[in-house]
Specification:
Layout lengths: L29 E6 L5 H17 L3 E4 L6 H10 L1 E4 L10 E4 L6 H9 L3 E4 L3 H15 L3 E5 L5 H7 L6 E4 L2 H4 L10 E5 L5 H14 L13 H14 L4 E5 L5 H12 L5 E4 L15 E6 L5 H13 L5 E5 L33
Helix pairs in contact: 4-5, 8-9
């Protein structure tokens, strides 16, 4: 049997530290550091799940898709022996495979079972909640308008729970084009990592067309996504520049850039690493806002703050808008160690902010 395809992210090439110059500007230079930021409970759980699987079963452990949407996390797990694949048919029969935090459809679960794979489901519990809602509404013969980005792994997983009942709505503008079979039996659900404001605008437009549109039983956009957006809104008002640490395929990181611009930041950029911060971004900038997406380890934020300090932005003020203490249990296969004892990390909890 040929080796499974391995999809490597672009490796990090560390740049020279101290690249940014301390150029005088009018007023006192400072950083507004958003909190909460970085790892959420679902990401923490998923990353620890891969680490524990490697400890428990040894390398390699296969992971379908990126466990979370962050290039640094993926690269570090690869160094420990994780192999990331696109689909389960690339995994050798009988191997351990971890499903990513974004969730999978029943078809993927069945495909893994057919290959005799030992699956570990690291789907975020908040995503699992949306899956269950989709199943319930489909059983009651509702048409489900799933607000989200076509092609995103989470959307594919949720839609796969009830493909005959789900229509994906990509944007507020797309809402104006949607047609339904029975306007009296329509409900909306959403991808968990969207912009809260844009999602509610999409819902508003859908309800104008379908007045009997039902709401989900509870908020689908995850608490961490909402908290990070609330924090960056407060930061953006007073920021000349906002730097969001996060990867390009991270929906919630990309949304943070958009929200920052919408709420007053004069400029906002997303970077994976500190090396990508450009000197010209700081021209005439007195206040820099800094935050990170929900799949970003705090070390990457620390590196940005250290580089900014070298450019004169040594005064750091934390702007905190919420406290987060939610912790999710690990997948059931990983809650005990090899001796059958409850593992000390059966719960997540490696919070970063």
């Amino acid at each position: 049997m040929s080796s499974p395809a391995v999809h490597l992210p672009v490796p990090r090439i560390p740049g020279r530290r101290g690249r940014l110059q301390d150029i005088p500007v009018d007023g006192r230079k400072k950083v507004l550091l958003a909190a909460p930021r970085g790892y959420c409970a679902g990401v923490d759980r998923a990353v620890i799940a891969v680490e524990k699987a490697l400890e428990r079963y040894g390398a390699p452990v296969y992971v379908r898709k990126q466990i979370v949407h962050n290039i640094h996390v993926v690269t570090e797990l690869e160094k420990k022996g994780a192999i990331f694949v696109e689909e389960v048919d690339e995994v050798p029969a009988g191997s351990h495979v971890v499903f990513s935090a974004h969730g999978v459809s029943p078809a993927v679960v069945s495909a893994a079972s057919d290959r005799g794979l030992q699956a570990i489901d690291a789907t975020c519990p908040l995503v699992t909640k949306v899956h269950r809602e989709a199943v319930r509404f489909a059983r009651d013969d509702f048409e489900i308008l799933l607000i989200g980005h076509e092609g995103h792994e989470e959307v594919e997983g949720t839609a796969g729970e009830a493909p005959e009942h789900v229509t994906v709505v990509n944007s507020p503008e797309h809402a104006d084009e949607i047609e339904v079979r029975d306007p009296s039996k329509v409900v909306w659900l959403s991808q968990t990592t969207l912009s809260v404001d844009e999602t509610m605008e999409t819902v508003r437009r859908l309800r104008e067309r379908f007045p009997q549109l039902q709401d989900p039983p509870s908020d689908d956009i995850c608490y961490a996504t909402q908290n990070r957006q609330v924090a960056i809104k407060k930061v953006a008002v007073g920021a000349d520049l906002v730097i969001v640490v996060g990867s390009a395929n991270s929906s919630n990181s990309v949304r943070l850039v958009e929200v920052a611009l919408e709420y007053g930041a004069k400029a906002a950029y997303r970077v994976d690493y500190v090396d990508e911060v450009k000197q010209e971004w700081l021209e005439g900038v007195q206040t820099v806002g800094v935050t990170s997406g929900a799949s970003v380890p705090e070390v990457l934020v620390t590196e940005v703050l250290e580089e900014l300090a070298g450019a004169g932005y040594r005064d750091v003020e934390e702007v905190r808008t919420a406290e987060e203490d939610l912790i999710f249990s690990l997948p059931k296969e990983l809650r005990q160690d090899a001796n059958g004892q409850r593992d000390s990390r059966a719960l997540g909890g490696r919070s970063s902010a």
